[in-house]
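Handoff note, outgoing to incoming analyst
You'll be picking up this chain. Sequence as last confirmed:
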Amino acid sequence: MTLGFIGLGSMGGPMAANLVKAGFDVTVYDRDPARVAALVDLGARPADDIAGVGGADIVLVSVPGPPELAAVGGELLAAMAPGSVLVNLSTVGLESARELARAAAERGIDVVDSPVTGAADGARAGTLTLMVGADPAVLERVRPAFDAIATTVMHMGAVGTGTASKLLTNMLWFIHVVALSDAMAIAVRSGIEPATFAELVPQSAGASWVSSHDLANLLAGDDDESFTLALCVKDLRLIRQLGDGFGVGSDLAAATADRFERALERYGPRAGELAVARLAESAMDVSIRSARGATR
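Most recent structure output, in case you need it:
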């Protein structure tokens, strides 16, 4: 089995590295030559362009969003052989996922719709969760590769269900980040030390993946730039589109999107996702990012 990997950013780079470390024959491509060089140092083969990856049995793609997937998809599919498999690990919209599958089917290429969750540290550790939309037989063909990058592989249904699952779990993630930020700021305003409240939350009904993953960063003043506000806002817009496509919506998701949009406007697209907590600090006139969380 030969593998190709396109997109070697904060998520794709570690995933490709784990595939190489697991002994797979991996050809990689990224627009940044330094990222390619880092994988070549581990044992990957370099490709000069997207088409240079297309000869692999299975090609995995990890790019920021729908425009990037559309730009990669056409050139990649033209270089892939019938019977090969394209695995989309990117977070895109439902229509983007389905359009890729339609275009691939016309060429006899199978698609696995498999966005990931678990953050950059999970990508490095190989402990990601994959949400898979695919024919079960095609999933089994790619499972050996998945076992090198993830500890949990959830088959959600047909192509598109992986993407829908990722958007909905991201909706929960972003809502939790805003709720946790507000709770921390109000706790400090109430006279509770931020570290004390942070110790309580994981032991309470308010516990979540977000609290276990992000509280330490909030206390340390680390906005976690591995996932930027630009990506958060992109995903929240895709979440809104998903609901709009069915004539439904979420008031909580809409309020959360507004908060992240305002954070993006104030702190810029490259700021980390937890920069959104600064808006809660500003509203309550406190700091949850200092040792004592003193009122400013």
